[in-house]
């Protein structure tokens, strides 16, 4: 520090203390933001990297990945092989579904008929008239089958005799 | 622990926006303060300070890490302000101003100046100091701002301004003398009120 100041002058230390005791001039609010906008707009010399915000970069990468995935999906969908395979898959899937539903419906109807018949038989067995009727039906049926058997045997014997003669 | 200037410079060169933002936040007051002291127009000083940061960013790859970053960026501010002063031929304002009715009045050195007791308030002191600095010649204003606001050494001031060391010392010597006179005119005594 200089100590050769004349009495009517201020010393280095006095002025340093004086400047420290007051606020230095400051720019207005928002100066840093405005400056950063100006800096980001400024053209860069060749070979220099542009400034980037890490968050913006992250969102940028996410947007790029989403765009690439979407484009790949659209390209695949527009390809004839992929499109025909896809439509065939859909057609077969729908056809199989309809067949399964029809099968289930038919099975339910058959089951319903069997259930109704079984129910009727069980109810008929429970009464005397029904039991008599069922026994008579069974007897008639057995006699009919026996008669049919005899007719068929006699017809076969007749045809053998005719062949021998 | 806050990043050093060199780390921030390296980060900005790698493209980290946050690194250069930190440089702006760290140096906005010194840069603006130096330019405002030199051009004495707050609005224009902001534009020039902004211009300084843009130039600094564009030239960041030329910064030598062996140098003090503050001196490097203040040198850019110095050149920006000097260019502006040359362009606009700005000089010190006259000590006297003429009112509408033609009466010549002293802007600051009023005989009815506030007493030193009244000037004890910090804001008032700042105003007085600002007015006293404003009366200095532009080259004196700059060395005063660099020496007492930015607290740079003589050799750093010489390097920044491109002036010989002897010129820096003599400029500061004369600036101190003139400041003392201006402050005395405004009611401040160098010997009784500004004792460090």
Topology:
The complex is a heterodimer of chains A (165) and B (196).
Chain A: H1 12-20, H2 31-41, H3 54-78, H4 80-125, H5 128-164
Chain B: H1 5-13, H2 17-39, H3 42-58, H4 69-88, E1 96-98, E2 104-106, H5 122-134, H6 138-149, H7 154-161, H8 165-185
Antiparallel strand pairs in B: 1-2
Helix pairs in contact in B: 1-2, 2-3, 2-4, 2-6, 3-4, 4-7, 6-8, 7-8
Strand order of the largest sheet of chain B: 1-2
Total number of helices of chain B: 8
Structural class of chain A: mainly alpha
Distance between the termini of chain A: 159 Å
Helical segment count of chain A = 5
Low-confidence stretches of chain A: none
CATH homologous superfamily of the largest domain in chain B, by name? Winged helix-like DNA-binding domain superfamily/Winged helix DNA-binding domain
- The Cα radius of gyration of chain B reads 19 Å
Total number of β-strand segments of chain B?
2
Mean pLDDT of chain A: 82
Helix % of chain B is: 55-70%
The percent range for strand residues of chain A is under 5%
Quickly give the CATH architecture of the largest domain in chain B: Orthogonal Bundle
Q: What characterizes the major β-sheet of chain B?
A: 2 strands, antiparallel
Q: Kindly name the structural category of chain B.
A: mainly alpha
Task: Tell me what portion of residues of chain B adopts beta-strand conformation.
Answer: under 5%
Overall CATH class of the largest domain in chain B: Mainly Alpha
Tally of discrete structural domains of chain B: 2
Spans of chain B of 5+ residues with little confidence (pLDDT < 50)?
90-119
Described by the principal axes of the CA atoms, the overall outline of chain A is: rod-shaped
Summarize the structure in words.
The complex is a heterodimer of chains A (about 160) and B (about 200). Chain A has a domain at about 130-165. Chain A contains 5 helices and no strands. Helices cover about 80% and strands about 0% of the residues of chain A. Chain B is globular, with a radius of gyration of 19 Å. Chain B folds into 2 domains: about 5-90, Orthogonal Bundle (Rna Polymerase Sigma Factor, Chain: A); about 95-185, Winged helix-like DNA-binding domain superfamily/Winged helix DNA-binding domain (Arc Repressor Mutant, subunit A), CATH 1.10.10. The relative contact order of chain B is 0.11. Chain B has helices at about 5-15, 15-40, 40-60, 70-90, 120-135, 140-150, 155-160, 165-185, and strands spanning about 95-100, 105. Chain B has 8 helices and 2 strands; from the N terminus they run ααααββαααα. The model of chain B is unreliable at about 90-120 (pLDDT under 50). Helix content of chain B is about 65%, strand content about 5%. The chains are: A mainly alpha (about 160), B mainly alpha (about 200). Chains A and B meet through helix 1 and helix 2 of A and helix 2, helix 3, helix 5, helix 6 and helix 8 of B.
């Amino acid at each position: 520090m200089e100590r050769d100041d004349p009495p009517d002058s201020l010393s280095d230390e006095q002025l340093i203390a004086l400047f420290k005791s007051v606020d230095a001039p400051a720019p207005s609010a928002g100066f840093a933001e405005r400056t950063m906008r100006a800096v980001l707009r400024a053209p860069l010399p060749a070979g220099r990297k542009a400034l980037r915000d890490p968050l913006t970069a992250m969102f940028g990468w996410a947007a790029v990945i989403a765009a690439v995935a979407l484009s790949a999906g659209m390209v695949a969908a527009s390809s004839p092989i992929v499109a025909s395979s896809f439509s065939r898959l859909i057609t077969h899937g729908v056809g199989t579904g309809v067949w399964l539903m029809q099968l289930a419906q038919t099975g339910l109807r058959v089951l319903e008929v069997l259930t109704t018949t079984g129910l009727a038989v069980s109810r008929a067995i429970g009464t005397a008239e029904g039991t008599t009727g069922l026994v008579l039906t069974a007897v008639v049926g057995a006699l009919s089958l026996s008669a049919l058997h005899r007719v068929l045997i006699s017809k076969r014997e007749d045809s053998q005799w005719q062949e021998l003669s | 622990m806050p990043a050093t200037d060199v780390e921030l410079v390296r980060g900005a060169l790698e493209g980290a926006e946050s690194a250069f933002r930190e440089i702006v936040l760290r140096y906005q007051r010194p840069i603006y303060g130096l330019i405002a002291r030199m051009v004495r127009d707050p609005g224009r000083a902001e534009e020039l300070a902004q211009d300084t940061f843009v130039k600094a960013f564009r030239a960041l790859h030329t910064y030598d890490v062996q140098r003090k970053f503050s001196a490097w960026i203040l040198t850019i501010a110095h050149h920006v302000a000097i260019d502006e002063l040359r362009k606009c031929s700005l000089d010190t304002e006259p000590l006297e101003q003429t009112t509408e009715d033609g009466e010549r009045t002293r802007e600051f050195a009023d005989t009815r100046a506030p007493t030193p007791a009244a000037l004890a308030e910090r804001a008032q002191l700042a105003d007085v100091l600002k007015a006293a600095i404003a009366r200095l010649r532009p080259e004196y204003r700059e060395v005063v701002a660099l020496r007492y606001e930015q607290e740079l050494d003589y050799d750093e001031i010489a390097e920044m301004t491109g002036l010989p060391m002897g010129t820096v010392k003599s400029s500061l010597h004369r600036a101190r003398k003139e400041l003392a006179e201006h402050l005395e005119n405004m009611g401040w005594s160098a010997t009784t009120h500004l004792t460090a």
